[in-house]
């Protein structure tokens, strides 16, 4: 247990799981749909916290303030704003993750055959922690290419309310002073921006934003029209960093905890319910054990490389929040955005929404692994 983690149930290798790739797609898709419906309101709050413009006072003081303001100005339906894209993305993401993860494990098993299990011939071969992490990292890297376009459109939809406020603020601003005018002090500038921001928030509270905001198709067409097909992968660097490291943490944490629960049952003298006399397997674990392992994996996935996600969200929403004039400015690099966030709001800015993300990741990942494991146990 200390130096290895069991694979996702493949007791007889690839031959013991016919149509494994197809089943991974189906099981992963089903798990993704269920998890996304639960976590989307938390994700919307996280994106809005991460995407607040750095050149004026923060609109939201924290997660609860963001939830309250969203409900007051946009109603309860706003919490599922942009959910269509994440649902499709969750299906593609989880299908890709489990397909690549299981196939990578099979490839590593062929390249580096594990030693025979000393526990008995019915036991699945074990993989080392580095091998498990490597397979998971490959799965995360592959999933990042599926996720980036989905998250780009989702993030743009989720900050459309802030973009509308930015447009109102720009329209309400007085004409720019002449070059001969005295430049205001930083304190005066901050006070002016704060006053304008407060008045805009008050106005948006009194009158809700236009009910017909652009949908996923409209945002996708806009990106394709302005930047071409490559524009859909804006923020790929951040997504790949997050998914590669996060994927390794996600699967490895789950596998280690599953191994712990299996070993604990074995130490109590329990045997498999499906095969009396054989060693306990993952299919014998309870819902509580599977969901506990999945919830812990979800928290680890999000916490380990959260700043990359924060930078990615900022990059993907920059066009909306800067307005039409801001689009003419050169686009900042991944590293530069990170530096700007840190300079404006410190290390706290790079972890904006982290607690809320960990909170929503726990039940979401618990559902993903539970549903996937149960489907796998039932249908192979």
Automatic annotation (TrEMBL):
Keywords: Membrane, Mitochondrion, Repeat, Transmembrane, Transmembrane helix, Transport. One of its GO terms (cellular component) is mitochondrial membrane. It comes from Rhodotorula taiwanensis. Belongs to the mitochondrial carrier (TC 2.A.29) family. Solcar repeats lie at residues 22-107, 127-260, 285-378. It is a multi-pass membrane protein. It is found in: Mitochondrion membrane. This is Mitochondrial carrier. It comes from the Eukaryota. GO terms for molecular function: L-ornithine transmembrane transporter activity. Pfam families: Mito_carr. GO terms for biological process: mitochondrial L-ornithine transmembrane transport. Residues 173-193 are annotated as: Disordered.
